[in-house]
Design brief:
Structural class: alpha+beta
Number of helices: 18
Largest sheet: 6 strands, antiparallel
Strand order of the largest sheet: 6-5-10-11-9-12
Helix content: 40-55%
Shape: elongated
Strand content: 15-25%
Radius of gyration: 37 Å
Distance between the termini: 60 Å
């Protein structure tokens, strides 16, 4: 649209509107134009006017071999993903009844169900951990040996009260921790639930220490109130020191200023909150609860027995006392052994492979198909169809969904997205279960290499942590692209010599073919032809130029002028291009420009305002990226 101005009267502002807009394709076909002879002709006399989709297409999507329109629904910030899933299912059921015959809605990804299943799995593990801790607490704190000689089945007695005190403390601490998580805006997800499982074994320590101290003092003859106060006086400060030291161990995660630190901050926050709450409960709530629930053990000794017997005079404590005495007597040997074991632990830790985040337990398999850089989307579409058909034949595959010309949209937060480009396709393969997923994950790389050697295929799982394109990556940075390419090729040679790397490549991919038009500028200036007009003539011939827009309701549809396909599907068609001159006449393009066949980078990445090539590779099964990177 073009503004026609306005009339400024003393009392009004009157907008000027110009008519003549196209109302239909027939209006466009009937548009009069002036021919070379001066006579008027219609546009339809010299051009075919049709309506269609963008050609070539930018992105295509298929599900189970049929072309589809993909709809993505994202949750608003602060929303409830489970509630969103329920609302969407209700909306889909209402919409299906009104769809035209032959059309249907199929759900490719169900993030709410995946989140619900994952959270339920962690909650199940959390409950199992609580049950195990309670069982150990009941046995360790309440199992006592009867004095005297008794049959085997009567030699031990179990007092459930000490374990019950610890058992009541666990849900109390978890409840207060959940309140703190809500206050600080920490959601219930894998990281926070995993942190609770980690903290569970730590948060019962303080309660066990306090209860065990009360039971011990009651065995020595203290009354319940005195035993409770003694437990507080003797253990409160040491327990606080230990709690703070443990919390400080998670401080690097909380202070990390990185994507990983942002992702794992809940480990630090939840663990610290749970530990501090457990200390408060252990020094205030546990003594009160113990004074209320605990009873003096049946084998409490009198004051005369305490004078003549030692509470710790048992075979276990006698052996333990011998070891402690030896360590104190031979202190330098003890220090030397400790240092040696510490050094041995450090050496052993270096032998353990490192991986901060394992792969996700979700069933989806992503298959990347990379054609050489510069491949048209039609060729990528053809190979993607063949791969889809082949994968659909594999046993245990429920569905195959393909994006051609782009990677899949971000249906999963840690997804490493592939940018739109004509030479790439990405498939989501959904197996029946995790066992089938592992079978396909090991089988598909060989299948792609043997049956589709023309593509660079890659099979990968969804990650758990921040997205990392490849497990092994080396980046070459510098100002000269040619030098960078040579250095990157040298690095690829070194990486391929390592037996543990797979599929070595770089993110600049291959160079692409190019036709460079060398213009005779002297002749062009004489004829009044500019480089811009030459570029426009070439674009109109080959790709098409947007010469206007057709308005249809609230939509704007580009009007593209270009030659028929038969006149623009070969490089020799440039000989048919004409360029308008200053005199109004047109001359052949090749009279003032010479085409030169050459190569140029198809993709160029930058980092810190300098060129950067990332050389990358996958790794052999059973190894971690850090291990292979250290080898290289």
């Amino acid at each position: 649209m073009e503004s026609a101005g306005s009339v400024q009267s003393p009392l009004d502002v009157v907008m000027v509107r110009v008519g003549g807009q196209f109302q239909s394709l027939d209006d466009l076909r009937a548009m009069p134009i002036r021919g070379a002879s001066g006579a008027q002709i219609r546009l339809s006399d010299i051009a075919t006017v049709t309506r269609g989709y963008v050609d070539p297409a930018f992105v295509k999507v298929r599900h189970q071999g049929q072309e589809v329109i993909a709809l993505g629904v994202s949750m608003a910030k602060g929303g409830d993903i489970i509630a969103l899933g329920q609302t969407l299912r209700q909306a889909v059921s209402r919409m299906e009844s009104s769809l035209p015959v032959g059309m249907k809605l199929e759900q490719v990804q169900d993030q709410p169900s995946a989140v619900s299943s994952s959270v339920n799995e962690f909650i199940k593990v959390l409950i199992e951990a609580v049950v195990i801790v309670l069982a150990v607490s009941f046995l360790a704190l309440g199992l006592h040996k009867r004095p005297g000689v008794h049959p085997l089945w009567k030699r031990w007695t179990l007092d459930i009260r000490p374990g019950l005190v610890v058992g009541i403390t666990i849900p109390l601490v978890l409840a207060v921790t959940f309140l703190a998580m809500h206050y600080f805006g920490i959601g219930l997800h894998k990281i926070s639930l995993g942190s609770l499982i980690i903290a569970l074994g730590l948060l019962v320590d303080d309660a066990i220490i306090a209860v065990e101290m009360m039971v011990r003092k009651m065995e020595e003859g203290y009354d319940k109130v005195r035993a409770a106060t003694f437990a507080y006086e003797l253990t409160a400060m040491p327990m606080l020191t230990g709690t703070l030291i443990t919390a400080a161990g998670f401080l690097p995660i909380g202070m990390a200023k990185s994507m990983t630190g942002e992702y794992t901050f809940a480990i630090f926050a939840v663990t610290v909150v749970a530990l501090l709450v457990s200390w408060v409960a252990s020094v205030y709530f546990v003594p009160y609860l113990g004074a209320w629930l605990l009873k003096p053990p049946a084998h409490v000794m009198s004051s005369e027995q305490l004078d003549s017997a030692d509470m710790f005079d048992s075979p276990f404590y006698r052996r333990f006392r011998v070891w402690v005495t030896w360590c104190v007597t031979h202190r330098w040997k003890t220090i030397g052994i400790t240092v040696f074991l510490f050094a041995l632990g450090i050496v052993g830790m270096g032998k353990v492979q490192q991986q901060f985040f394992p792969d996700s337990s979700r069933p989806e398999i992503l298959v990347d198909l990379w054609m050489p850089e510069g491949t048209p989307i039609g060729a990528s579409d053809g190979i993607a169809k063949r791969v889809e058909q082949r994968l659909a034949q594999e046993e245990g595959v429920k569905s195959v969904t393909a994006w051609v010309g782009s990677g899949v949209p971000r249906f999963y937060l840690p997804l490493d997205q592939v940018f739109p480009q004509s030479n790439v396709s990405q498939l989501i393969v959904l197996p029946q279960d995790l066992k089938t997923r592992e079978v396909l994950r090991n089988k598909l790389p060989t299948l792609l290499a043997q049956e589709f050697p023309e593509v660079r295929g890659r099979v990968k799982l969804l990650p758990n942590g921040p997205p990392v394109p490849y497990p092994v990556q080396f980046r070459v940075v510098g100002p000269d692209p040619k030098v960078l390419r040579l250095k990157a090729d040298e690095i690829k040679v070194e990486m391929r010599q390592n037996p543990h790397t797979r599929g070595v490549n770089d993110n600049w991919n291959e160079s692409v073919k190019a036709l460079r038009l060398d213009v005779d500028q002297a002749k062009a200036r004489v004829l009044g032809v500019t480089s811009q007009s030459i570029a426009q003539a070439s674009r109109t011939l080959l790709s098409g130029s947007t010469v206007g827009q057709f308005r249809e309701g609230d939509k704007l549809i580009d009007i593209v002028l270009r030659q028929p396909l038969s006149e623009r599907d070969a490089m020799s068609d440039l000989a048919q291009a004409y360029v308008p001159t200053a005199s109004g006449r047109a001359i052949p393009l090749l009279q003032i420009a010479t085409p030169v066949y050459t190569w140029e980078p198809g993709v160029m990445w930058r980092e810190g305002r300098q060129y950067a090539i990332t050389v990358q590779s996958d790794i052999a099964e059973g190894l971690q990226g850090a291990t292979v990177t250290a080898q290289l």
